[in-house]
Design goal:
Chain A is built from 13 helices and eleven strands. Chain A has 364 residues and is an alpha/beta fold.
Chain lengths: 364, 364
C-alpha cells in the first residue's frame, strides 16, 4: 500500500487529527475494591519490598483507584512464614512471598521459585509463560484456593556469607547455616546444620552465634541488612538460587469475582513487576558490591570448581529425589527438566557465549 | 503483631468475607479511543509481530475496550522504514519498530536499541528503568513529537548467515551483507559492503545474489524466514546485537491527551510486553536451532577469538566516534558506557559466572 492509500485509509478511520476519538463518552459502572497484601519482607525493603509497593501502586493507577491495595511488611499483620495459609484462607486477598518457603506444603513448590543449578530469571519467565510452567503452577495452587503470579525476580543471587574459607565440601560439615529451599537440603547432605529463618532474623542470629553462615539475596539486599558487619567472606556464584521468583498469590475466589478488565490489569501488572524488580536488582547489585568490597573490605571468593561440581551432583540427586515423592512434583520436574536442557543449550550459543565474548574482548 | 490482632484488624477493614467490596458501585465517565499501530514487521511475524499484536490486545482488555488498537504489518499502511516519520507526524498514533533503524535521524538512536558488545536484554532494561536511560530516550524523542517505550527484546541474536567460512577479519572484505545498525558500520570498516534492507527483503536478496550474507534475528525468526535455504553457515555469538530493544512509540500529543489511567495502562502493558517477547524468544530459539541443525543440516560456527577481539576493538571506536558527533549522543553514550562497566563487573560475579558454573557441572 502506498502513501496515498495510507492517507485515504487514515481519513476513513478518523485519524487525520491524530487523536482518534470515537463517538460520545460512554458511561461505565464500576465497583470499588480495597484489598490487603501481606508480604514476607520488611516493609519497604529494597527490591522485594519496594517491588510489592510498586505493584500495588500500578494496579491502583491503572484501575483509576477501583482496586486499591494496602501493603503490610512481614509481622505487621501476619508472620512471614504464615502468609500462604492466611491468603489461602482468605484472611488477606494477596500475599507477596516466594514458593521457596512452602516446600513443606507440597514438594512441587521449589520449581516455581528456584532450584539449585536450575533456570536463570530470564529462563524462568520463558518456562512459566512459554514452556508450560504457569499452567502447572495454576493447577498446583488451585488445590490451595490460590491464584499464583510471578511478580518479581532477584536475578542470580550470591553464594552466601561465611567466616571460614570453603576449600572443599568437607568445610560445610557441622556448619550452622541459614540456607532455605533445596540449596539447604543439598548442604544438609554434606553435614551442614540448616536453620530456617526469615530474612530479618539473619543478622541477630549471626551476631548471637545461633548460626555461623547465611545466604540472603545479593549485594543490593545484603548490604541493606548489614551482613558484612558479621561475616568476612562473600562467596559466588549463587548456585542454589540462580533466579528466585517472587510470587504474588491471590485468594482465588476474590480474583475470580473481579470483572475481566481488573483481572487483565492485575495480570499485566504482575508481569511488568517481574522484570521491573529484576531491573532494580541488576542496576543496584554492582554499586552495592563495590561498596561492600571497597568501603567495608569484604573479601569476594569463588567456590572452587571441585566444590561446585560436587554441589551440582548432589543438587541433581536432591531435585530428582524430591520429584519422586509425588506424581504432581514429578510432572512439574519433567517439564522443568526438559526446558532446562533447551535453556542450557541455547544459552551456550546465545547469552552465555555472548557474555564470555564481551568479557574476552572488553576494552571500551 | 500476633494472629489475634491480625484478625481484629482484618475485621475492622471489612476483610472477613475475603472480598473487600467497598461501598456502592461508582459511575465512571469514559471516552473511547480507536488507534492505529504501524509496524516494521511482517503481519503476525513470530516474536516481533505477535508481540505487537499481544500488546494491542492487552491494552484493549485492561481498558475494557476504551482504547482499541488496530495493528498493521510493514507496507500495509506505511513501509517499514517510514514508520518513525509517520508517527512523528501523527499519521498513525503508534509505531512498533526499533531505534536501530533511525540512526540517520540522530546519532544517539542506536543506544536505545542495541550496540555492538553492549548490554544484554536484562541489562538494557536495568539501564533504561534504573540507570537513567529512559529519561534520556524521552528527551531525545520529545524533539520528534514522540513518546518512546521499550516494548520487547529479542535477546542475544545470532552472528549471521554466510556461505563462506570466516577465519579472519579479512574474510569480511568485499562481502555484500545485510547488517543494520552499528554492527554494519563495524563490518564496513573491515571492507564489507553493507546494504540496508527490511527483514522481508532478505531472502529474495540472498536468492538473487544482491547480497552474499545477512543477519536477521536468531533461530526462532530466521527459521521462519527460511534463511537456511540460501545460506550454509550460521555464526555465533551475536556480538553486534546482544539485546535488541523493540520500541513502541506514540505520537506525543495523543498520548498526553489520554486520561491518567489509560496512560498507566499503556506504560505497564509496554513493560510487560518487553519481557514477554524476550520469554517467547528464549523459549523458541533452541527448538528452532535444533530444527535448523538436525533437519536442515545448517552448520553452526563460532567466530574465532581473534575475529571477536578485532570486532570488539573496532566496535569501541565506532561507538565512541558516533557519540563524538553530537552533544546529546555523547551524553547518552556516557550514561550507557558507565552502566555497561557496572553490568560487566556484576555479570562476571552473577549471571555469567553462574551460567559457566552450570555448564561446568551440568549433569541433570
Amino acid at each position: 500500500m502506498n502513501r496515498r492509500m495510507f492517507l485515504t485509509n487514515a481519513s476513513r478511520s478518523a485519524m487525520v487529527t491524530g487523536v482518534g476519538l470515537l463517538g460520545a463518552p460512554a458511561v461505565h459502572a464500576t465497583t470499588r475494591y480495597a484489598w490487603t497484601m501481606v508480604t514476607a519482607w520488611p516493609k519497604d525493603f529494597p527490591g522485594v519490598g519496594t517491588g510489592a509497593n510498586n505493584l500495588a501502586q500500578h494496579i491502583a493507577r491503572m484501575s483509576d483507584q477501583r482496586l486499591t491495595i494496602t501493603v503490610y511488611g512481614a509481622g505487621e499483620l501476619v508472620p512471614a512464614f504464615d502468609i500462604f495459609d492466611a491468603v489461602a484462607a482468605g484472611k488477606a486477598e494477596m500475599g507477596h512471598a516466594s514458593a521457596l518457603y512452602w516446600k513443606a506444603k507440597h514438594p512441587a513448590m521449589p520449581f516455581f521459585a528456584t532450584v539449585p543449578f536450575g533456570l536463570t530469571a530470564q529462563e524462568m519467565e520463558a518456562w512459566l509463560r512459554y514452556g508450560g510452567g504457569e499452567a502447572l503452577w495454576d493447577a498446583l495452587y488451585t488445590g490451595f484456593n490460590l491464584k499464583p503470579f510471578a511478580a518479581g525476580n532477584t536475578g542470580v543471587q550470591m553464594g552466601g556469607w561465611f567466616n571460614k574459607v570453603i576449600n572443599t565440601v568437607e568445610d560445610f560439615k557441622g556448619l550452622k547455616m541459614r540456607f532455605p529451599g533445596l540449596g539447604g537440603d543439598v548442604l544438609a547432605r554434606l553435614g551442614a546444620q540448616i536453620v530456617d529463618l526469615p530474612g530479618s532474623d539473619i543478622l541477630p542470629a549471626l551476631q548471637s552465634g545461633a548460626i555461623e553462615a547465611a545466604e540472603w539475596v545479593g549485594p543490593y539486599n545484603d548490604l541493606a541488612f548489614g551482613l558484612h558487619t558479621v561475616a568476612q567472606y562473600y562467596y559466588w556464584p549463587g548456585w542454589h538460587e540462580p533466579g528466585a521468583v517472587l510470587e504474588c498469590m491471590i485468594h482465588k475466589p476474590v480474583y475470580e469475582a473481579l470483572p475481566a478488565d481488573l483481572q487483565a490489569i492485575i495480570t499485566q501488572a504482575m508481569q511488568a513487576a517481574y522484570s521491573d524488580m529484576l531491573a532494580e536488582y541488576t542496576a543496584g547489585n554492582n554499586t552495592a558490591l563495590m561498596t561492600l568490597v571497597q568501603t567495608h573490605k569484604v573479601q569476594l571468593r569463588r567456590f572452587p570448581n571441585a566444590v561446585l561440581g560436587r554441589l551440582g551432583k548432589i543438587s541433581q540427586e536432591v531435585v530428582a529425589a524430591l520429584a519422586a515423592t509425588d506424581p504432581m512434583a514429578q510432572k512439574v520436574y519433567q517439564s522443568f527438566h526438559a526446558f532446562r536442557k533447551h535453556a542450557i543449550e541455547w544459552g551456550q550459543i546465545g547469552e552465555e557465549a555472548y557474555s564470555l565474548a564481551r568479557s574476552l574482548t572488553s576494552t571500551f
